[in-house]
Design goal:
Chain A is built from 1 helix and 9 strands. By secondary structure, chain A is mainly beta. Chain B has one domain: Thiolase/Chalcone synthase (Peroxisomal Thiolase, Chain A, domain 1), CATH 3.40.47.10. In chain B, helix 5 crosses helix 9. The chains are: A mainly beta, B alpha+beta.
């Protein structure tokens, strides 16, 4: 059971394979992000080069799938045909303080009308989409 | 070291617009809209369209200069310039790019233009169905985040949290645009005033944006004619001199998955100081301001990052009486702007600034000499500019 209805665009790995380890990781229930092998800078989203030291040695590191709500919005207007009957839903931008304060977007599971508090701790919930043409797993969030 | 500046070297001598329509309601194809706006700007300037030698635009305008030049029978084509990225953020930059070409001898008579027919092409506020996504969008779209209203809601939500900004501050920005549109017969929302109650009762799009915090989607076209300051004196209209233009964005603004260090920003942090430096002016010198409203939250952060108001004083300052012509402390979006005149990707704001300096605006600020125009915020790159009358040179 996914948080949002079926019919939204399905994520696929980039043709240049830059983000392949991320999508392989979520299929296995692991949250992997980039960390520079030379200067240890955390980096998200993925890029070919370290923004801090220009090293090419970007490692994919598993991180504990938890964080804090950094900002959010509750979406009401159906901007996509698949959302027409969905009602409101919440998107949260989650900060990972234990991984250089990188941020990642997801939905906040639970009551879509709930009060959302910036700073609230959350943990990841892996949401598989096994019946997609190219199966994938999204990273969602719930209050810790 | 020699001073490198555009200040006072180029002027707008012609402005032109088509009728402004609700989205998808233009009877004309987009290319025809572009031609009509350019011809109107030439007529306003008193030039023969054959003499246009240069074109600049932004936001991946679909009407390319070579076709325009051929259609208009221009004697020659020199500058053919497109500002990369940033959509409506490029409005001031396109003028800056054309002005720079004029000052460096690469152009003589330049037109900056923008045309939109969202019925003929895709709408901005509606995502396409189905398919797959990759790259940055793969980290965003599957969570139901597609359009600018949603992406930019995330920015202002955090900003309001950090600075204790109330919804009423956003509301005042929406009310100011609608207030001015009621004096402007060109405005799509002319005759449709907005009250505080109607704002509050309007549906949410993406919190904290109500319907009236969001720009319209429109069809139409706008154009301005630029020449050197020396030539500007030969034209019939009072020239609007370019005093300053700045473009760009802050450190790693485009970091994927909303990881810009200064994400909750209009992107003007390091850009605005360049603007004031070239203009040799500050926020207090601006008589009238047009600030691109894609969403009211972007206007708010544009105002703070340009120094018009301190982030912690938005609740006190952003009140309707401070934002309206002729008496407000900072008359803002005096034609109705993107919210209530027309979403012509902000080029209508440049035209309104020129009108204010000519003294022909529908909500005129008396004796306006310095007119600011802030192009689309919260994107990268953004751009911003100052026009001045002859007295400011």
């Amino acid at each position: 059971m996914s948080y949002l209805p079926k019919g939204l665009p399905e994520p696929v790995t980039e043709t240049d394979k830059l983000d392949q380890p991320y999508w392989e990781g979520t299929r296995a229930g692991k949250l992997k992000v980039q960390r520079c092998g030379a200067c240890n800078t955390w980096q998200w989203g993925p890029e070919w080069i370290c923004h801090n030291c220009r090293s090419w040695d970007m490692k994919w590191v598993e991180v504990e799938p938890k964080g804090k709500i950094w900002t959010w919005t509750r979406c009401w207007h159906p901007v996509h045909p698949a959302l027409k009957a969905a009602g409101p839903y919440i998107a949260v931008l989650v900060e990972l303080p234990h991984a250089g304060n990188i941020r990642m977007l997801g939905n906040l599971l639970g009551d879509p009308h709930q009060t959302v508090t910036i700073g609230a701790p959350v943990t990841a919930v892996f949401e598989p989409h096994d019946d997609a043409k190219t199966p994938y797993t999204l990273v969602q969030w719930k209050l810790a | 070291m020699a001073e490198h500046t555009l200040r006072g070297k180029v002027a707008v001598v012609g402005i032109g617009e088509t009728t402004y329509y609700k989205h998808s309601q233009s009877p004309d194809p987009e290319f025809v809209l572009a031609l009509k706006a350019i011809l109107a700007a030439c007529e306003d300037a008193g030039i023969n369209p054959r003499d246009i030698d240069s074109f600049a635009s932004y936001a991946n305008d679909r009407n390319d200069p070579s076709r325009l030049s051929a259609a208009l029978g221009c004697k020659e084509l020199r500058l053919s310039n497109m500002q990369w990225g940033g959509g409506g953020g490029g409005g001031a930059a396109a003028i800056g790019n054309a002005a720079a070409a004029i000052v460096t001898g690469q152009a003589e008579i330049a037109v900056v233009y923008r045309a939109l027919a969202q019925g003929q092409f895709q709408r901005y506020g509606l995502a396409q169905a189905g398919g797959t996504v990759s790259g940055d969008n793969a980290l965003i779209n599957p969570y139901g985040i597609f359009v600018p209203a949603q992406r930019f809601a995330l920015k202002i939500m955090r900003y309001m949290h950090e600075h204790g900004i109330k919804q009423e501050a956003l509301r005042a920005l929406a009310l100011a645009s609608y207030h001015h549109a009621q004096s402007n017969p060109r405005a799509v929302m002319y005759g449709r005033p907005l009250t505080e109650e109607a704002y509050e009762a309007s549906r949410w799009i993406a919190e904290p944006y109500h319907l009236f915090d969001c720009c319209m989607e429109n069809d139409g076209a706008a154009a301005v004619v630029l020449v050197s300051a020396e030539r500007a004196k030969d034209f019939k209209n009072k020239p609007a001199y370019v005093l300053s233009v700045a473009q760009g964005s802050d450190h790693r603004n485009a970091a994927r998955s909303f990881n810009a260090p200064d994400f909750h920003s209009s992107s003007f942090g390091p850009v605005a100081p360049h603007l004031w430096e070239m203009a040799k002016l500050g926020p207090k010198d601006v008589d009238v301001l047009q600030s691109y409203e894609n969403f009211t939250g972007g206007v708010l952060m544009s105002l703070t990052e340009h120094g018009f108001v301190h982030p912690d004083e938005c609740n006190e300052f952003l009140k309707l009486e401070n934002l309206i012509a002729p008496s407000g402390k900072l008359p803002l979006n005096t034609s109705g702007g993107n919210l209530a005149e027309c979403y012509m990707h902000g080029l209508e704001l440049q035209i309104e600034a020129v009108r204010q300096l000519r003294g022909t605006a529908t909500s005129q600020v008396p004796n306006a000499k310095v007119a600011g125009v802030i192009a689309g915020p919260m994107v990268t790159p953004v751009s911003t500019m100052i026009f001045g009358s002859e007295e400011t040179l």
